[in-house]
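Attaching the record inline, Q. Sequence:
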Amino acid sequence: MRVETKRIHLRPVIASDAADLFKIYGDPATNIFNPAGPYPDIYHAKTVLDRWIDHWENNGFGNWAISLLADPEIIIGFGGLSILSYADITINNLGYRFAAETWGKGLATEFSVCAVRYGFDEIKLTEISAVVRGDHLASQKVLEKTGLKYIREIHDVKDEPPSQLYSFTLSEWLSRSM
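Structure, as predicted:
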């Protein structure tokens, strides 16, 4: 399932994306707000990628490799919708991470709007949520521009301060889209 916006191209992740996944998720700059830190090695990236591919096979949606339309062979990020469970809830999680050199260009917002539209219009989710660290103001702004609203704190990482749960319902989407 390939998806395009004005500037970006999305395609489901594949096994050969491991090096690009490690390059982006292993970069300390992209992990400033991630208490788990960068991926330690390519093997960890392969394990995560296998899990993402299984999610696509089992659920019919998941994470995409993100590239610019102008250069579709160069992956600049990863993101998508996935089912995640935390201590007391299960959510349809909107997540993304872009290579540091692409920051500040509105690509995360463009991606997030596209992913939400896809989630509600194509796969008929009833709610889409996101979990963001309390000090990650840029991602909070992206979520708010996309239509998600702060709901509450959520304890998602043991022995770390809580994150913030944002959410957007199908009914909110439909009332906004009309």
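Residues 50 and 140 are 28 Å apart (CA to CA). Strands lie at 3-4, 8-12, 63-68, 71-85, 90-98, 127-133, 149-154, 163-169.

More tomorrow.
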